[in-house]
Amino acid sequence: MTGQKYDYGMIGLGTMGRNLVLNMNDHGYSVAGFDKSDAQVELLTKDTGTRKIFATSKLEDFINALKSPRVILLLVPAGKIVDEVISELKPLLSENDLLIDCGNSHFTDTDKRIEELKKSTIHFMGVGISGGESGARFGPSIMPGGPKDVYERVGAMLEAVSAKVQDEPCVTWLGPGSSGHYVKMVHNGIEYGLMQLISESYHLLKVAGNMNNDELHAVYAKWNEGKLHSYLIEITADIFVQKDDLTDGRLVDMILDSAKQNGTGGWTSEDAMNLQVPTPVIDAAVSMRGLSAYKNEREAGQKILKGPEAIFNGDKNELVSWLENALYFSFITAYAQGMALLQAASKEYKYDLNLAGIAAIWRGGCIIRATLLEGIRSTFTHNPDLSNILLDDTFAQKLTKSQAGIRRVVQKGAETGIPLPALMGSLAYYDSYRSGWLPDNLIQAQRDNFGAHTYQRTDKEGTFHTNWNQNNK
């Protein structure tokens, strides 16, 4: 190594870390990279050329190469590995050094790390990054949380490397503590929901509609030109025409129908339940990924569990039209559930989130970017305390106009025996939300009957308990 001191450090030179290093350097920042794997170090070194980038597998050389006070980004797997990296770094760090965890850490872990490192006068930030390999290289959506004065040390760099929409950087300081990782978690929860909704539309078109890959490509490509315009719809259209290198067919048909989840979707559902915020589209997506993994049991069930024949005998163009409206309707409810969770979490965890700002930075770079987010941004700009976008007049009208499609789609799903849990959950959420009365008075009566859990009345204040059936004997 030379005697040069580098602006930033990056620990973890996998695909994301390596590409983010190159992105940072593109914008004028010198970067030192560290990875225990010599192979990863070599990959970055090959890409470096004459760039002001230094890569090493020796931790002390890495630390000594950085300007003081140091700013070190971590792009390593969430969980114990983050703590192990911090433990190795601590003896080598100095007062006011800053560690930035850019992985998908659970927000409660981030809070613990902030407090623990504060004792050593070392700053720690949790920063969510979305956009995959391409985003890291050319501009991701970045979700930083932590003390605002600490953010200001790195804000200019984060703005420089982030995606841009109408010249606005897709990054903003979100709030104190673990707010960055919390917002990223909810982003991923919404991502789960949108992907499940799209996969259900694919199931209905492929199996009931008997569409081939070229027809499917045409449908999703057309949808992406309209109100469903989004990154996920765009890549879905492209997937159907990707050729398989090992056969003469399309790659999508050779991929095993068994999905996995990396934790963030489940974490979103879990915390939503803790905060008593309903997120049925996200919940269904998490559950269906779990169910998809039961491949052997599903194949056994296919042989003995009977249902209707999965054939649609109507006009395919009509089915496509219904599904476009159904997806639009369900996309709105998926975003609504995620934003409602952020609103509740903002109060519970004292994040003081700006939901308009969050919608703005999700418009570019990230996986859930979509035209819809501009409307969501506008809604929260005019009404920042809105509990749910379903209560906004503009979105209420959009849902009203598109609900006929989802009702027909849910009906066809039931008639053909094709599972549509996220689409059905979306409609049930909407119908429940617009119901001034729900049958939970019966549930409260049952709870009081078997467990003396008490209930409230419609005609007077207070909490009541009844000795059930005593007057009926």
Describe this structure in words.
Strand 1, helix 1 and strand 2 (31-34) form a beta-alpha-beta unit. The protein has helices spanning 15-26, 38-48, 59-64, 80-89, 107-118, 132-138, 148-161, 179-208, 213-223, 231-239, 264-274, 280-292, 295-304, 316-348, 355-361, 372-382, 393-416, 421-433, 440-451; strands spanning 8-11, 31-34, 53-56, 71-74, 98-101, 123-130, 141-145, 164-165, 168-169. The longest helix has 33 residues, at 316-348. The protein is α/β, with parallel strands linked by helices and 473 residues long.
Total helical elements: 19
CATH architecture of the largest domain: Orthogonal Bundle
CATH superfamily of the largest domain: N-(1-d-carboxylethyl)-l-norvaline Dehydrogenase, domain 2
Strand order of the largest sheet: 3-2-1-4-5-6-7
Main sheet, how many strands, which sense, barrel? 7 strands, mixed
CATH class of the largest domain: Mainly Alpha
Strand content: 5-15%
CATH-defined fold name of the largest domain? N-(1-d-carboxylethyl)-l-norvaline Dehydrogenase, domain 2
The averaged pLDDT comes out at 95
| Number of spatially distinct domains | 2
Low-confidence stretches: none
Radius of gyration equals 25 Å
Spell the H/E element sequence. Answer: EHEHEHEHEHEHEHEEHHHHHHHHHHHH
Number of strands: 9
The class by helix and strand makeup works out as alpha/beta
**Overall outline:** globular
Helix content estimate: 40-55%
How far apart the termini lie comes to 90 Å
